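For reproducibility, we list the full input for the NAP complex.
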Amino acid sequence: MTGSPPPAPSRVAVVTGGSRGIGRGIVAELAAIGYSVAINYREDHAAAEACRREAEARGAPTASTFRADVAGLADGRRLLGEVLARFGRIDLWVNNAGVAPAARLDLLEATPESWDRVLGTNLRGPFFLTQAVASELIRLREGGIVPDPQVVFITSVSSAFASVNRADYCVAKAGLSMVAQLFAARLAPHGIRVYEVRPGIIDTDMTRPVHDAYSERLAAGLAPIRRWGTPEDVGRAVAALAAGSLGYSTGEVIHVDGGMHLRTL
Ligand code: NAP
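The corresponding predicted structure, in tokenized form, follows.
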């Protein structure tokens, strides 16, 4: 045989809700360290395609978009199947897709409709999707196809901060933090590491309705680092995990919040 050996297949990351905001930042930073990326979105196809082009420009060997609603369990399983059919491997699964409540309602006015919508997308969907993903990651690792699979959950400071005007969101994120711990414990014997990345106040479409109020509060010291977080801040944290340097750590919470979680006196 002559010539150079074929290049090693690139690692593959799946980012749910990867088309906009934090997900888009994660996709771009993973692309920059050489991951091929599967970009999931729910409805904004144009945003997903723009993200795909950006990923290719940042260095992703391959980038593809996948429409699926992660709140729907069958849709989630279809997403998983389509990614595997396209790429044949998954090295990193990032559960990022999430929604804010349509309206911020006081705890005493909270509605079951908003509860079901927010917990369906932010907790129930990712739990059962990760259950299905976990079985595939075990198979891929035991088959020698993926040496070092990882799962990341994007939670929020709302996992630990009580906001009485969006109980559903706080409960969903607190639950998702436990989901991350559960999968970390369950998958460690299979050589699969699981992390929680917990962002603070990040400048995206989700925070646009409260942008002015949070700008004032950040300037006044809401977080010790007195600025908005960016999708790139979160993306770089995920990329640091994806580089694989935390090989003897699992279940860690990586705060990306400008120090907002610190208790100060
Ligand atoms: P965003 O700007 O509103 O973007 C949301 C992304 O998720 C979009 O790509 C959207 O796709 C997708 N998405 C929403 N529902 C989906 C579903 N059911 N199935 C598949 N994709 C879905 O939100 P973001 O601020 O980037 O937030 C991303 C994650 O970070 C969320 O989990 C959020 O809770 C969390 N977070 C955000 C902040 C913050 O300050 N922004 C802070 C902490 C944590 P379409 O456009 O196609 O709908």
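The helical segments are 21-32, 45-58, 73-87, 112-142, 167-187, 211-219, 231-242. Residues 16-17, 19-23, 40-44, 47, 69-71, 96-99, 121, 154, 156, 199, 201-202, 204-207 surround NAP (CB under 6 Å). Both points were considered when choosing residues for closer inspection.
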